């Protein structure tokens, strides 16, 4: 069965072996973050819609889970903001009813958490991984390029309110960009916001591969350690790099070989590979990252589009 909405299982830096569930079309999001590894947002919106029907997700999950796959999480994520799908509440309920043995995680940009119905449904998740990159409106605009209706203070208050009703783990991610949100002023504001939100973990992140804008540069390890020290005594940590040597499903290794064959002497982009092979964008993205890190293929920038060729 060819999956339209599932990807992986993939080796996640935070979640181990994660089966991804993509609930919105490619690059439908409420933010257009400059560091997004998936690229520029094409549909910037905040209206929740039925982008994908619950039954379509359940059919694919049923087929996949019949193999009794060993996974750490079923994770709502993908190439856009999953909470924009108004059917998320029903999907969570059905998964927990049919497969209560699996843990559910949600990766979200936090912008929809003012929706009370959504927050109530999320109480059935085992782990929420929201993000918050800025407190001042100026920096919020610089980094996240939000839908015009969104304000950082509203997002922070929504996160704080959600924390009060959510009994399971919340791991708050902050993505740092040198010279923008790592200034003394913004760091202080972010720390104060974290004290209000009270996440179980504060996960400090920085560029791992090229983002939507080429000017976004990777922070040095020394600077990341300085930021980590600044957040003490709060429960902050650096997001660890993936241990790719971990046991992976045969299907995962097969996909990597197929993707490697698709990359030849002519530059090719991730969307092109995805279309040619019929693989989910995020599946291709994760494998490409490994192949670049292993120096098996080379990443080049062709007119603001990242493309890949064999080394």
Give the topology, please.
Blueprint: E1 6-12, E2 16-22, E3 28-29, E4 43-44, H1 54-65, E5 73-77, H2 88-98, E6 104-108, H3 116-122, E7 127-130, H4 137-144, H5 152-165, E8 169-175, H6 184-197, E9 201-205, H7 221-231, E10 236-238, H8 250-262, E11 268-269, H9 270-277, H10 281-293, E12 297-302, E13 305-310
Parallel strand pairs: 2-5, 3-4, 5-6, 6-7, 7-8, 8-9, 9-10
Antiparallel strand pairs: 1-2, 11-13, 12-13
Distinct helical segment count: 10
Q: Return Rg in Å.
A: 19 Å
Looking across the biggest beta sheet, what order are the strands in?
1-2-5-6-7-8-9-10
How many independent structural domains? 2
Query: What is the residue-averaged pLDDT?
Result: 88
Class based on secondary structure composition and strand pairing: alpha/beta
Q: What is the helix/strand order?
A: EEEEHEHEHEHHEHEHEHEHHEE
The fraction of residues in strands falls at 15-25%
| CATH topology tier name of the largest domain | TIM Barrel
Distance between the termini: 33 Å
**How would you classify the quaternary structure?**
single chain
Low-confidence stretches: 243-248
* CATH superfamily placement of the largest domain: Aldolase class I
Please estimate the helix content: 25-40%
What is the highest CATH level, the class of the largest domain?
A: Alpha Beta
Biggest sheet features = 8 strands, mixed
The count of β-strands is 13
Which geometry do the CA atoms define? globular
**Secondary-structure arrangement, i.e. CATH architecture of the largest domain:** Alpha-Beta Barrel
